[in-house]
Design brief:
The complex is a heterodimer. By secondary structure, chain A is mostly helical. Chain A contains ten helices and no strands. By secondary structure, chain B is of the alpha/beta class. The longest helix of chain B has 15 residues. The chains are: A mainly alpha, B alpha/beta.
Chain lengths: 256, 168
């Protein structure tokens, strides 16, 4: 009995890690709405954000169902505090300039796409079907972010410099995507979610290929930040949540 | 007593809220219609997981059936198999073109395959004929157009911008 309970807890955690990462990145990307350098990019950013929020509804909706305490996706998104969030540190990084936003998107997409592909093989049908749905959308995100990282990296002197700076800044936040803890191990052993380090070969191959094409160089330091998946966040997430959650906090259950 | 075929026919007149020239059945999002006693059960699959039209579509389907006198309607969501543009009916593709949206080109779905990706990204681009003048001299402006399901293109012959309904 005890193992069953533990697996349920791990499943809730695992689903929050997926849903919180898409939620936080979706919100970050939506902060560009009305501010992007050109109209087409503004629209593209908003559409990527929309896909991510849609995927969040599926992941957090299932998380609430698994938890069985009557919390739906909205309750999980708007009524948890910062230490309850399980998103990757990478996605809570501030947007910075357009180049940094795209670099963050690419480093995430390059993990997200193979991760979803692996999740399609989950022995939990509810997870497999969400992954199959989201994977088709994310394939387009990856195409766009990889394309733009190449164009800006292998672009003007200024754009190259900015993309290299973005890569140097964000690189220490990429290790967490492929690092395992007890929750990940329990889910992998049960065949529910892939072991995070099983994604590494695909991530490294794709990132290496794109950075090479973009004439960018990954930092040599192997130091990686971690903690987001366990609820230890940078100061940036609290500020973001203050903006994202204020309406539901000030006027609980407010509806349009 | 209403028949399943009758319900399908009614649904074929419910327009997509975003692209009103095509119906929800043209779009291929109605996956099943069944009867459970007096209740009509309509199973709908979302196009994109974040598509804001989904709730409007459900509302329109329910409203259309109620307007036809169906008292009990239940809508169910089905994610598996995920919706694909391959389910668009052939006539719907023509309606899209006439409306100014280039229809999806079969077999060009983004796969996220790692090997050879760079070649595909930087090499030969997909040829999307202009829905207005038919020219193949078109260029992609952005992977995402007015909605997530579309990409923004421009025709280099007639210079008109247009939407391309991406293959998914």
């Amino acid at each position: 009995m005890e193992t069953v309970v533990k697996l349920d807890l791990a499943l809730f955690e695992g689903l929050c890690r997926l849903g919180d990462s898409t939620l936080v990145l979706g919100h970050r990307v939506s902060e560009w709405c009305g501010h992007a350098p050109v109209l087409e990019e503004d629209i593209a950013l908003a559409n990527v954000a929309l896909d991510l929020i849609g995927q969040t509804q599926l992941w957090l909706g299932l998380a609430g169902e698994v938890e069985g305490r009557g919390r739906d996706a909205d309750a999980l998104a708007f009524r948890r505090d910062v230490w309850e969030f399980r998103n990757l540190l990478l996605v809570e990084r501030p947007n910075g300039d357009f180049g940094q936003t795209l670099m963050r998107q690419f480093l995430f997409d390059a993990w997200h796409q193979p991760m979803l592909k692996a999740l399609e093989g989950s022995n939990d049908a509810r997870i497999a079907e969400i992954a199959a749905k989201a994977g088709r959308e994310v394939a387009y995100h990856l195409e766009r972010s990889a394309d733009l990282v190449i164009r800006l990296g292998d672009g003007s002197e200024e754009s190259h410099k900015r993309m290299q700076t973005a890569l140097d800044t964000l690189w220490p936040y990429t290790g967490e995507m492929m690092a395992s803890d007890a929750t990940d191990c329990a889910l992998a052993e049960a065949g529910v979610m892939p072991a995070p380090d099983s994604i590494r070969p695909q991530w490294e191959a794709l990132v290496g290929e794109v950075l090479g094409e973009a004439t960018l160089k990954a930092p040599e330091s192997a130091y990686m930040h971690k903690g987001g998946k366990q609820g230890t966040h940078s100061e940036h997430l609290g500020h973001m949540l203050a903006t994202m959650q204020w309406l539901q906090r000030a006027y609980p259950d407010a509806k349009w | 007593m209403v028949s399943v075929a009758q319900v399908w026919d009614w649904l074929s007149h419910v327009p997509d809220p975003e692209i009103p020239v095509i119906s929800v059945t043209d779009l291929g999002i109605v996956r099943d219609v069944s009867l459970e006693g007096e209740t009509v059960v309509v199973t709908v699959t979302p196009t994109y997981s974040g598509c804001p039209a989904t709730s409007v579509i459900n509302f329109e389907i329910e409203k259309a059936l109620r307007d036809k006198g169906v008292a009990a309607v239940r809508l169910e969501r089905r994610l598996d198999p995920p919706w694909t543009t391959d389910w668009l009916k052939p006539e719907a593709r023509e309606k899209l073109r006439a409306y100014g949206i280039a229809p999806p080109i079969y077999g060009t779905r983004a796969e996220g395959v790692v090997a050879g990706r760079i070649k595909r990204l930087t090499g030969a681009a997909l040829v999307v004929p202009c829905p207005r003048c038919g020219s193949e001299e078109t260029q992609k402006v952005s992977q995402f157009g007015s909605t997530p399901c579309k990409a923004a293109y421009q025709c280099r012959s007639c210079l008109e911008p247009f939407d391309y309904f991406k293959c998914i």
